[in-house]
């Protein structure tokens, strides 16, 4: 299961040695609910190699502002503290997996 990002743990997550994948979502967003199980599957598959996290845009303003998220779902791929890729909108598991593999 993906880790929940909060204002309290955001800096710690961004300081991770591993690449980080952040799914920006909201409860009321249909496409967000569509990709939620995919994000959780990827968290399980890449456990120990990639930190997969979810950020509720209504609860973690710091992360939303840092990455300039305007539309959801948005999945941000971070390595070494910098954004290396971004996907806006619903996506297939294969599409997200390909972006993760590029980071490794």
What is the topological layout?
Blueprint: E1 3-4, H1 10-14, E2 20-25, H2 30-45, E3 51-56, H3 61-67, E4 74-79, E5 82-88, H4 93-103
Parallel strand pairs: 1-3, 2-3
Antiparallel strand pairs: 2-4, 4-5
Describe the protein's architecture and organization.
The chain is built from 4 helices and 5 strands; from the N terminus they run βαβαβαββα. Helices cover 38% and strands 26% of the residues. 29% of the residues are buried. The chain has a single domain, classed as Glutaredoxin (3-Layer(aba) Sandwich). A 5-stranded mixed beta sheet has the order 1-3-2-4-5, sandwiched between helices. The protein starts with a strand and ends with a helix. It has 104 residues and is of the alpha/beta class. Helix 2 links the parallel strand 2 and strand 3. The model has no long low-confidence stretch (mean pLDDT 94).
Note the main sheet: 5 strands, mixed
Assembly classification = single chain
C-alpha Rg, in Å? 12 Å
Number of domains: 1
Summed up, the helix count is 4
Shape: globular
CATH superfamily: Glutaredoxin
Structural class by SSE content = alpha/beta
- Indicate the CATH class: Alpha Beta
Strand order of the largest sheet: 1-3-2-4-5
Strand content: 25-35%
Number of strands: 5
Low-confidence stretches: none
Q: What is the overall pLDDT average? A: 94
Per CATH, what is the topology?
Glutaredoxin
The secondary-structure element order is EHEHEHEEH
CATH architecture: 3-Layer(aba) Sandwich
**What is the terminal-to-terminal distance?**
20 Å
């Amino acid at each position: 299961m993906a880790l929940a990002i909060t204002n309290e743990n955001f800096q710690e997550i961004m300081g991770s040695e591993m690449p980080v994948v952040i799914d920006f979502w909201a409860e009321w967003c249909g496409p967000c609910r569509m990709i939620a199980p995919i994000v959780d599957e990827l968290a399980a598959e890449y456990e120990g190699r990639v930190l997969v996290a979810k950020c509720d845009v209504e609860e973690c303003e710091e992360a939303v502002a840092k990455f300039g998220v305007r539309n959801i779902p948005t999945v941000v791929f971070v390595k070494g503290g910098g954004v290396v890729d971004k996907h806006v909108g619903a996506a297939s598991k294969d599409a997200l997996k390909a972006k993760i593999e590029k980071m490794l």
